[in-house]
User: What shape does this take?
Amino acid sequence: MKNWLKIVAVVLLIYVHTAGLLLDVPRLNILNETIRALYFHVPMWFGMVLLFLISVYHAIRYLRNPSIETDRKSVEYANIGLLFGILGIVTGMLWANYAWGTPWHGDPKQNGAAITLLVYLAYFVLRGSIENSEQRARLSAVYNIFAFAAMVPLIFIIPRLTSSMHPGSGGNPGFNMYDLDSSMRPVFYPAVIGWFLVGLWIVSIRVKVKELEEKILDLHDENK
Amino acid sequence: MMKTSKGIFLLILLMISNTLFAQDAAMADGMRSEGKIYVVVGIILIILLGLFFYLTMLDRKVKKLENLLNEKQVKTKS
Assistant: This one.
């Protein structure tokens, strides 16, 4: 990952965490100051979806042209995507406790997100259960496509078909005037970009570590 | 005699300290204004910067390891 992108991520997030707490936000009942959680909770989900998208891209690349490199990337993007998703669901539960009254409201989007996380957790269970590395890569790449295909309706379609307290659900598209006040956009979008870049940064470190691990193992074989 | 002088001395000290406390001394109130939100901002920024520092260090460490491995590979091949 390019160094200037890391600097962009750091600058954006310093701005987001300052402006997100200090700038004026819409005054709404029940939500009160917790409306600011939007700056921190929602970027986790945006980050997760984007990272899963890159993961499935590498999975398809693997199936078209198998290589260790694409398999490795596919796994690491899914890994950090899952981390973002877990952070998203935990922050969402804390927020729901004060905005909706209970941490688990049974909201369709909340349930869909939880199922998505379980589907992606199963991806790692699948990988862990296959000894042969080529078989592991091939099967998990196929599963990755199914997991992504399951995520789209679970998070983006089903919640919009039913009514829900979750913004972006119940028929209205994700971003309209009711969901995101335009005064919040100048902080929200930098937050999404900043966190996504941090995700890419962590992935790049993890991929490098895996590459090193494989190189070391190769070295060991050569010495024999 | 000693007791009364001590008592008066104490009284004077108390009065001085009282006037000191009554003063509206200028303090760095920036951090205390608006429900002390700036303190929260400061805490969050410290954690964020700490995390980024850690990530940068991790990045450097991995790069060093890569270089080390490359050197060793060159040595074993030559």
Remarks:
- Chain A touches chain B through 21 residues (CB under 8 Å).
- The two ends of chain A are 35 Å apart (CA to CA).
- The mean pLDDT of chain A is 89.
